[in-house]
Amino acid sequence: VQLQASGGGLVQAGGSLRLSCAASGWNWSRYAAAWFRQAPGKERVFVAAINFDGARTYYENSVKGRFTISRDNAQRTVHLQMNNLKVQDAGFYYCAAVEGPGFLWGPVTAYDSWGRGTLVTVSS
User: Fold this and answer.
1) DSSP 58-107
2) What is the pLDDT along the chain (124 residues), one digit of tens a residue?
């Protein structure tokens, strides 16, 4: 599948943003999806994941209670609602996907489809 992320921007600390990832290709409803973040000069790190039908989600500890991942398989989209943003949340956000109805989340190497990043900047 091909993925395209959007929705990044500049926001003050405490503010909100909603990222979207649009998917194209076959069998999207069989794919698990995730969001990763990469700050300048740092490794790409896991943020949130959702399984193929949206029934299960998983979050990195620092975003629990602030971020919500969701998906709409009819629209072929995955969203990341980010509330109460902190300066440390800033970076390029990438959506990723891998086929597997039984898959929930994994490291960067577990995903074989990636979108281009969308930049989130958080000012203090």
Assistant:
1) EE-GGGTTTEEEEEETTTTEEEEEE-S--GGG-EEEEEEEEE-TT-----
2) 999 999 999 999 999 999 999 999 888 999 999 999 999 999 999 999 999 999 999 999 999 999 999 999 999 999 999 999 999 999 999 999 999 988 999 999 999 999 999 999 999 9
